[in-house]
Amino acid sequence: MKAIYLTGFMGAGKTTVGELLAEKLNLPVLDSDQQIVKKLNMTIKEIFDQHGETFFRDAETEMLKELPTEDVIITTGGGIVIKDENRALMKENGQIILLHADIDIIYDRVHSDTNRPLASKKTKDELHALYHSRVAFYHDCSFTVDTSNKEIEEIVNEIISRLK
Ligand SMILES: Nc1ncnc2c1ncn2[C@@H]1O[C@H](COP(=O)(O)OP(=O)(O)OP(=O)(O)O)[C@@H](O)[C@H]1O
Ligand SMILES: O=C(O)C1=C[C@@H](O)[C@@H](O)[C@H](O)C1
Ligand SMILES: [Mg+2]
Questions:
Q1: Who contacts 103 (Cβ-Cβ below 8 Å, separation ≥6)?
Q2: Which residues surround ligand 3, an ion (CB under 5 A)?
Q3: What CATH number is attached to the domain comprising 58?
């Protein structure tokens, strides 16, 4: 089976949902953010603070190329879709499932987490503007699952029922 890539904005639930999905499908799960943190031995905040976003985006593309593409679930970083190259790699190597949540819910989930540099200092309106600047890229996917007001188990069951 080709890879399953979970995409979506920060806080949509990719990492959380991916773990239970992997357990239920008996597949390994790898999180692109966690793999970058491990490889560079730095937190996401440290990478952004010390090297900037462009450096992080390059590390993200490099990681996407290093990750396995068969019999695996890859939970991606919220900004992975902004590069054409990344979207092309994911489409070629698997199917992309978009997790979506309402911006109010996203804001509640992420605004107090200091390890998301592109969210931690933003107002709800600013976060919404960032989401809007990316929305077309997120829609380049096989199907979308709304994670607003749903238990993780319900989201995972919906994904499994819709997988090809
Ligand atoms: N369906 C849900 N219901 C309630 N809380 C949730 C749900 N999904 C995720 N969360 C919570 O929201 C926060 C963000 O979730 P998670 O880290 O999985 O998002 P993400 O999409 O991986 O974000 P990022 O793009 O920043 O990696 C976590 O605290 C998680 O526990
Ligand atoms: O949406 C984004 O740009 C990001 C999302 C996170 O998963 C991390 O990859 C990082 O905080 C950047
Ligand atoms: Mg995540």
A1: 124, 127, 128, 131
A2: 14-15
A3: 3.40.50.300
